[in-house]
Write a structure and sequence with these properties.
six-stranded mixed β-sheet; 291 residues; five-stranded mixed β-sheet; binds benzoic acid; single chain; 2 domains; alpha/beta; 13 strands; binds fe (iii) ion; Protocatechuate 3,4-Dioxygenase, subunit A
């Protein structure tokens, strides 16, 4: 198209896309360009501002590596990851939440009731609950992956002092859908802020902190895979999570216990728990695969 104008440039882009373009790709791409062009017009974007944005993306590419993806972090801190999560999980099951960059495939298997805390410093938390379908039926054979930070707010992959797969495990539910384990109380921590995303935080007066949380992936036949997190009621960062992961149904009480009376009877640690210990009761409700 010749003589492209501000009014015709969006259609000109669409006209350049050939008939062989996959329909969904064409739809998503056309909407993205429509919104980007509308954004430039609405903001009367200057050349200098656009170049600043492109430099940001260039810097994000420069700092990224197989171990660190600054674009995923950008998606997280702008709310895009959470928005896409919420679009994909509009059902009556447990809310999903961000995966984050610290999930490791291949976490060791642990029996129900097992001890993940081992020699880690910090207060003991007993996490216990059931995996159920919407409607309440227990889910046998559900695989629950859990990963979390140590008391210092670091994942094992960020901290040379921790062993590989420290505070990561995989459990499988029995016929009653129950799971239980002992672990350490996680701590709030900062998302990486030494790159362009950190600059964005500082330029906008935002905090890079996340409230303390336990990460879970729950998989079971016939059900949608659930990627979620469990947060602690009263955490100072619940209302300003840097990556917008907090949902009301994921905030749990860490009930304090000052004696051993309420410990579940099948824990591998038995009564060998320092006081006070904390109890989190959390059930996972899975949506049907084709719901
Ligand atoms: C995390 O929870 O581990 C996380 C999530 C998003 C960005 C950075 C860290
Ligand atoms: Fe995390």
């Amino acid at each position: 198209m010749k003589n492209v104008s501000m009014d015709t440039i969006t259609q000109a882009f669409l006209d350049y896309c050939g008939e062989e373009t996959d329909p969904r790709t064409l739809f998503v791409l056309s909407k993205m360009v429509e919104h980007a062009h509308a954004f430039a017009k609405e903001t009367q974007l200057t050349h200098a501002e656009w170049m600043r944005g492109l430099k940001f993306l260039y810097d994000a590419g420069q700092i990224s590596s197989p171990e660190r993806n600054e674009f995923v972090l950008l998606s997280d801190v702008t709310g895009m990851s959470s928005l896409v999560d919420m679009i994909g999980s509009q059902h009556d099951g447990t809310s999903s939440s961000v995966l984050g960059p610290f999930h490791s495939v291949g976490a060791p298997e642990m029996d129900v009731g097992g001890d993940l805390k081992q020699d880690n410093e910090g207060a003991t938390v007993v996490v216990e609950g059931y995996v159920r379908s919407i409607g309440g039926a227990p889910v046998e054979g559900a695989r629950i992956e859990l990963w979390q930070t140590a008391e210092n707010g670091l994942y094992y992959s960020q901290d040379a002092a921790q062993e590989d797969f420290n505070l990561c495990c995989t459990l499988t539910t029995g016929p009653d859908g129950r799971y239980a384990l002992t672990t350490v109380k996680p701590a709030p921590y900062k998302v990486p802020d030494d790159g362009p995303v950190g600059e964005l935080f500082r330029a906008t007066g935002r905090t890079p902190w996340r409230p303390s949380h336990l990460h879970f992936i729950v998989q079971a036949e016939g059900h949608k895979t659930l990627v979620t997190e469990v947060f602690a009621d009263g955490d100072p960062y619940l209302d300003r999570d840097a990556v917008f992961g907090v949902r009301e149904d994921l905030i749990m009480d860490y009930a304090e216990h000052t004696d051993h009376a309420a410990l579940p009877p099948d824990l591998a640690v038995g009564q060998n728990v320092t006081l006070p210990w904390y109890k989190v009761d959390f059930d996972f409700v899975l949506a049907p695969e084709n719901g």
